[in-house]
């Protein structure tokens, strides 16, 4: 069985994401800026992977394949970040606590190695979320 760890997810904004968003959400720049999970280096070690390995992130709401990287900003052991946007939205719980905003931060996710899995493009993620993605059949 593959190694798994339970982490606390915090979605967040980044300069790279903002620049890439201006270029376009289907651009290679947006894919590179947002289809990743920033993790503490000890959590990456605990998973038994090296940085830049694809991982599967699963929450109560769904799952997504992203690339695991050592966090570029403060990220304590047990925390992880996915930049707000298409890939994060695959796992963000819809709960709003009566605020009208989904729970973008502070929810549990399971992260496990997925080195042979493909990271979907932004368009594939959106199509899958609304039932239009037919996959690689």
Description of the molecule:
It holds the Pfam family Molydop_binding. This is Molybdopterin dinucleotide-binding region. Residues 8-106 form the Molybdopterin dinucleotide-binding domain. One of its GO terms (molecular function) is molybdopterin cofactor binding. The protein is of the alpha/beta class. It has one domain: Barwin-like endoglucanases (Beta Barrel), CATH 2.40.40.20. It contains five helices and six strands; from the N terminus they run βααβαβββαβα. It has a six-stranded mixed barrel. β3 (53-58) and β4 form a beta hairpin. α1 (15-23) packs antiparallel against α2 (28-34). The mean pLDDT is 87.
What does the average pLDDT come to?
87
* Low-confidence parts: none
Determine the structural class based on helices, strands and strand pairing.
alpha/beta
CATH topology, what is it called? Answer: Barwin-like endoglucanases
- Number of helices in the DSSP assignment: 5
* Strands, total number: 6
Shape: globular
Helix content bin? 25-40%
User: Could you say what the CATH architecture is?
Assistant: Beta Barrel
Strands in their spatial order, largest beta sheet:
1-5-2-4-3-6
CATH class: Mainly Beta
Distance between the termini: 26 Å
The radius of gyration is 14 Å
**Residue share in β-strands:** 25-35%
Key terms:
137 residues; alpha/beta; Barwin-like endoglucanases; 26% helix; 29% strand
């Amino acid at each position: 069985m593959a190694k798994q760890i339970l982490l606390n997810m915090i979605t967040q904004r980044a300069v790279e994401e903002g620049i890439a968003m201006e270029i376009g959400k289907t651009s290679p720049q947006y894919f590179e800026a947002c289809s990743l999970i920033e993790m503490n280096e000890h959590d990456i070690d605990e998973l038994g992977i090296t940085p830049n390995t694809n991982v599967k992130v699963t929450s109560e709401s769904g799952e997504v394949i992203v690339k695991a990287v050592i966090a570029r900003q403060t990220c304590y052991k047990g925390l992880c970040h996915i930049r707000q946007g298409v890939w994060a939205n695959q796992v963000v719980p819809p709960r709003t606590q009566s605020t009208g905003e989904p729970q973008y931060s502070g929810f549990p996710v399971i992260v496990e190695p997925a080195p042979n899995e493909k990271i979907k493009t932004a368009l594939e993620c959106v199509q899958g979320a609304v039932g239009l993605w037919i996959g690689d059949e």
